[in-house]
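subagent[fold] <- orchestrator: predict structure for attached chain, return tokens only, no commentary.
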Amino acid sequence: MAADEKAQAKGEQVEGKAKQVVGGAVGNESLKAEGQAKESQGDLRAAKEKAKDAVRPK
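subagent[fold] -> orchestrator:
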């Protein structure tokens, strides 16, 4: 399950970055902001998974 969450986090980060680039290229500030939000969401999900991994017994 953790691998699925990590993959989803990475997908959100990539999707967000792509939206930022496209939004900046075409001058669409709304799309750019949406991309920033999506990338931040992915960053938070990745941080949550990293914290869960740190707590798990090895």
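orchestrator: received. Logging for downstream: The chain has a mean pLDDT of 93. The CA atoms of residues 16 and 38 lie 5 Å apart.
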